[in-house]
Amino acid sequence: MFQKREEIDNNNINMTAVARLRELLAQEDKIVVCPGVYDGFTARIALSAGFDCLYMTGAGTTMSKLGMADLGIATLNDMRENAGMISSLDRRIPVIADADTGFGGPLMVGRTIEQYMQAGVAALHLEDQVVNKRCGHLSNKEIVDEETYITRIRAAVNARAQTHGDIVIIARTDALQSLGYEAAVSRLKKAIAIGADVAFLEGFTSVEEGRRVCAELAPTPVLLNMVAGGVTPNFTVAEAKEAGFRIIIYAAFALGPVFGAVSAAAKELKETGDLKAADLDGKRPRDIFTVCGLNEAIAFDVAAGGKLYAKGV
User: pTM for this structure?
Assistant: First the structure.
């Protein structure tokens, strides 16, 4: 945002975010690393670090927008609005967004696809939990039957075709916990056969299972959800790439650090009446604003003839 057209052309902005993501996925020797963000500030921080792709976490969106746990409470409007805002911050950078179950039957899944495409989202994942779902790393998830799940994926693929645009469709299954490995992978294979672009086996519990699913679904890219403290064993980026994964998302990338730092600051302020823990690590407020596009916004205003920021801020 607020970039000069010459700069945009030089940075290949004419390639859409979804085209960029497809280009990245076509590079078989590459793994796409996606930090999980949930609002404009965390997205700006990740963008400033230079990541090729971002992931909008549904859990983080639910907690930040609604102040509630990830129990299927966020609506299509909640998720699409947040995903669209994050996608708008830098149209060059693909955003993969959680779309839960598609928020209903085939018509609602189709509407979800259209809304996410209109919002500029590059990819989304759809899962096979019941509509009142829960975070994939919680226990006792309820799964819909295979036909219902495949109907969701087919509705997504059909809506994408009818909308005359593009979005990468990621088929996610949470069936491993209750139905076992073979049934879960069977669902992914059927989803791929009808047009899903990427497979996502949620909640696997061993390195061997991770390697196996990548091998069985090749050449289809497989996504790894790396949740610290979750049920899936830890993979470094290098280990995930070596195992065969093509995308790795860190859903709690921002949630953990924010929870820890803000909890510490709240405790300090409550107990001591002072706030040294929140001194911005020596940074000034302007430094934070700069991460969020301060200089670009001022330059844009000045170039248009605006006077408010002509002398700086």
Answer: 0.90
Per-residue pLDDT band for 106 (boundaries 50, 70, 90) equals very high
Determine whether 135 is an active site residue.
Answer: yes
The reply to whether 70 belongs to the active site is: yes
279 assigned to active site: no
- With respect to residue 264, please indicate whether it lies within any of the assigned structural domains: no
Has residue 8 been placed in a domain?
Answer: no
Beta strands in the chain (DSSP E): 32-37, 54-56, 95-98, 123-126, 168-173, 198-201, 222-225, 247-250
47 assigned to some structural domain: yes
Same domain, 310 and 250: no
Q: Which of 38, 152, 225, 250 is catalytic?
A: 225
* Range(s) of the domain holding residue 39: 15-132+139-259
Check whether residue 34 and residue 119 sit in a common domain: yes
Q: Mark whether 206 and 312 lie in a shared domain.
A: no
Query: Does residue 9 carry a catalytic annotation?
Result: no
User: Taking the mean position of all CA atoms in its chain, how far away is CA 61?
Assistant: 10
What does the pLDDT look like over 158-211, one tens digit per residue?
Answer: 999 999 899 999 999 999 989 999 999 999 999 999 999 999 999 999 999 999
Q: Is 127 a catalytic residue?
A: yes
Backbone angles phi, psi at 104, to 5 degrees: 155, -155
Number of structural domains found in the chain? 2
172 is catalytic: yes
Q: Residue 80 and residue 73: Cα distance in Å, rounded?
A: 14
CATH number for 68: 3.20.20.60
* Tokens standing for residue 83: 């995903």
Catalytic residue among 20, 137, 172, 187: 172
Active-site residue, 100 included = yes
Tens-place pLDDT, residues 51-97: 999 999 999 999 999 999 888 889 999 999 999 999 999 999 999 99
**Cβ atoms 32, 24 nearer than 8 A:** yes
**Catalytic: 29?**
no
Q: Examine the residue annotation and report whether 78 is marked as an active-site residue of this protein.
A: no
